[in-house]
Specification:
five-stranded mixed beta sheet; 55% helix; 189 residues; alpha/beta; 9 helices
């Protein structure tokens, strides 16, 4: 069983010493450390630490927010570790996910993560409805009508001009799917 540490600070100006000291005192054999924003999902050293861990190992982190920025992210990482037989310990909060109290905390974090996801989905839907009510355009802006008309003209003349739909799309910037859809609407296909 290996005891592995993970330490992270958000900016280059911050120091890792406090975390490293606490992880060493806990007995970590190896410590993965990085200066990277927790908001980034592609944290290289965290990925290396997770890859290094094996069944029966322990991942030790000084504080919850050093591992994850949201309960959803934390629950995802903890669930992956649990499925691989790896314990997760947070020193400052005194949470050990391999103990009964830690398992309870893990279950509660899962419920909070689900609640957080639902709130985000609700707020997104409300924002979308509000934008529609204000007449704001949702999604991508379509190509200019003149470009679509030019593409359709070339489409109807494609046998004479020897152009494929791909060629027409490249020339006009109108996506092939739009050309086909508009041609179908106008009974040209």
């Amino acid at each position: 069983m290996a005891v592995i540490g993970y330490a992270r600070v958000s900016t280059r100006d911050q120091e890792l010493e406090i975390q490293i000291d606490k992880l060493n005192k806990y007995g970590c054999e190896r410590i993965f450390m990085e200066k990277q924003s927790g908001a980034k999902s592609d944290r290289e050293e965290l990925a290396k630490a997770l890859d290094y861990l094996r069944d029966g190992d322990k991942l030790i982190v000084y504080k919850l927010d050093r591992l994850a920025r949201s309960t959803f992210d934390l629950h995802k990482i903890a669930k992956e570790l649990q499925s691989r037989g790896i314990s997760l310990v947070f020193i400052k909060e005194q949470i050990d996910f391999s103990t009964p109290a830690g398992k309870l905390m893990f279950t509660m974090l899962g419920a909070i993560a689900e609640f957080e996801r639902d709130l985000i989905a609700d707020r997104t839907a409300e924002g979308r409805e509000r934008a529609k009510a204000q007449g704001k355009h949702m999604g991508r802006h379509g190509k200019a009508e003149k470009d679509v008309k030019k593409a359709l003209k070339l489409y109807t003349e494609r046998e004479m001009n020897g152009l494929s739909v791909i060629d027409i799309s490249k020339m006009t910037g109108v996506p092939r799917s739009t050309i086909y859809a508009k041609a179908k609407e106008q009974g040209l296909s």
